[in-house]
Structure formats: structure tokens, C-alpha cells
Please model this.
Amino acid sequence: MTKTMKITYTAIFAAIATIVMYFEFPLPFMPPFLKIDLSGAVILIGTFIFGIGPGITMALIKDLIHVTQTQTAGSGELQDFLLTVTLIVIAVSFYHHHRSKRGALIGCAVGSVAMSLVAMLTNKFLILPFYVNGMGWNLDMIFDLCMKANPAINGMNAYLFLGVFPFNLIKGAILTIITMLVYKRLSVFIREKQFGMQHAKGK
Model:
């Protein structure tokens, strides 16, 4: 694949991910402000096809666009970037050493666990401090919201281990399933289209 084509596809995937990020949904029994969007699947698929560098670029473009409309002073977009990059780098790096469907699945699973651990750190040191210091909330208000969804989430440790960690594991599983269903077919389609363009030029 030529450099120009890779740049073009990177921009296309970033644009799709940017649009998809606007559509998000919560999970039952989880804190209501933790919401899933499927833009990570678009970027994960793009990373499997084009490589880690373009994948990071896709994530960066998406979050830079969304930061222009941020409601979290950029902290939410920064967290999204860190989590997405953690997932794609680990998943695709593992796949490069174990090129099989099983290798891709294991890579995504390991990446999802790592993403969930990073999410615990970013929530504790980035997101919650923003709401407390930037929005004037207090932790009791936040945990009261959490308890309405799940009474067991009644403090910081419960929030991190019963909210943030499993939420991101579920998110990682959803992104993995979508990627496994779409990646191979889309990869074949792009390569066939690339071959057809090169063949046409050769004539």
C-alpha cells in the first residue's frame, strides 16, 4: 500500500470514528456517566489493517476534534486517547507476534485488561479530580449517583473495582467482537480494491 493511500485511509477511519463517538450508551448497574461508544472498534480495525502508527493517529484526530466540544475541559478526551492507545498497541503488537485469529483474540483480551487497569488510574487521578476541582462536585455526590445504579458502589475502591474495571472489560469485549466480525472482510476488501487500482494503472 502506498503512503498516500495509507494516509487517505487513516483520515477516513478517523472521520468515521469521530462520528461514531457521538453515539454512546450506558450499561445497566454501572455509574450513569460511564458510557460506551463504538469508535474504539473503528480504530482497532484500522490499526489491525494499517498498523499501530496510523491507529494512534486515528485516535488522536478523533479526540482532537471532540475536544473542541468538550464538557470535561479535555480530561475525557485525554482519557479516551490513553485508553484507546493502550488497547490498540497491546492488541496489535501481540497479533504481530502471533498472526492468527486466536492471536488477535488473545491480544484484544490482554489489551482490554490493560485498558481497564489504565482506566482505573485515569478515573482516580484525572476524571474524578476534574469533577471535584473543576465542576465543584464532591465525591459523595458522585458516589450517590453510582449507588443509584448499583448500591455496592459506595466509595472509591468500590467505584474503581466494581464500576470502572468491569465497565471497561465489557467495553473491550464489545469492541473485540465487532473487530473480529468486521476486520478480515474489510481487510480483504481494501486489499482487493488496492490491487484493482494498481492493476488498472498498469494497463
Observations:
- The CA atoms of residues 58 and 166 lie 26 Å apart.
- The helical segments are 3-20, 39-50, 52-67, 75-97, 101-134, 139-149, 156-202.
- The chain has one domain: 3-197.
